[in-house]
Amino acid sequence: MRKFIVLVISILLLLSCTMLSGCKYASHFTATILVQSNTSDSGFMRFDSFTGTYVFKFKCTDESSGTLNYNAKLNAGNLKVYYDNGSEKKELFTLSSNETIGSSIDSLKEGTVYVIVETDGKCENGDLQFSLE
């Protein structure tokens, strides 16, 4: 009976480790009045206050041209936005108090595209939008 329990615990630990290692990036944040959405080709987040990291996950397919469009504005604080299209995390843009940005990045390859929003403290009244075309 003891060997059976050890075997079951070992299998559960192995499964737990396997499941946890599948996440390349993870969201962890504190926010008030956060409204967000994330589909396979678009996402947005609007917040009153936000501190931490939020991760969007998109799929770049044959039908899309590999272009990521983005628009963002922030009333207070500082944040950085990164993207990862399979190789490494690269900076997309930074945003500080009372700034607005809108642009795009081309030549994304087919596969998963992560967009990672990271703050260096409390940010207020933000609106970030992303879409794949």
Largest sheet report: 9 strands, antiparallel
Strand residue content: over 45%
How many β-strand runs? 9
Q: CATH class, anyone?
A: Mainly Beta
Helix content: 10-25%
Please report the number of helical segments: 1
Quaternary organisation? single chain
| Mean pLDDT over the full residue set | 88
Number of domains: 1
Which spans of ≥5 residues are poorly predicted at pLDDT below 50?
Answer: 17-21
CATH topology description:
Jelly Rolls
Structural class by SSE content: alpha+beta
**Strand/helix succession:** HEEEEEEEEE
Gross morphology is globular
- At CATH level 2, the architecture is Sandwich
Radius of gyration: 18 Å
N-C termini distance: 58 Å
